[in-house]
Amino acid sequence: MKTVLLLALLAAAPLALLAQASPPAAWTDHRRALPDKLRQVPVGLTLWHTPNPVYPAPNFARPGGFVWEHATLIRSEASEPLTVVECGSFIWYSEAGWQANLHQTPAEFADLFHCPGGRLLPGATYTFAHNNRYADNARQLYGGDALWYILARDPAGKLYKGFGLIETEATVR
Fold first, then answer.
1. What distance in Å separates the CA atoms of residue 62 and residue 98, rounded to the nearest whole number?
2. How far is CA 61 from each of CA 120, 131, 135, 157, 163, rounded to the nearest angstrom?
3. Which of 25, 43, 122, 162 has its CA 20 to 30 A from that of 74?
4. For residues 91 and 148, is the Cβ–Cβ distance under 8 A?
5. Which residues of the chain fall short of a pLDDT of 50?
6. Of 46, 35, 80, whose CA–CA distance to 150 is shortest?
7. What's the predicted TM-score (pTM) here?
8. CB-CB contact of 92 with 26 (8 Å)
9. What is the pLDDT of residue 96?
């Protein structure tokens, strides 16, 4: 009997470790539209994408490939400078809903959006001009939505968010 119990415990151990190693779900309350990270944080930033929706086009730099060319812009609506804490996106391409996708540090954000020190000045707009998505071939063309977000703090430590949805379509125009 002890051997059976020991074998059962040994068989269950990898499953317990696997469950502990899985990242937490990004979107646990499917009655709500936003992923958990963005809920209950006040809006203080405006984020948008252009063009939107975006369609794949042939990528002449990589014959046979495709590119969804678009820009992402962010503007602070706060009355004082905000400092970026995090930038990233969630993607929705299946029935599973929002899945964590990209995560950028404040330094990466500062570089991509040309925002010195990740410091967002009131009313200023910062642009990630070539926030493009790529496919190596036509088999990789699929549509889906991405929810980009920025989290930033004011000098008092209050957290604000900005978010914007981009629709990426699968059909070449």
1. 30
2. 34, 16, 12, 44, 31
3. 25
4. no
5. 1-20
6. 46
7. 0.82
8. no
9. 86
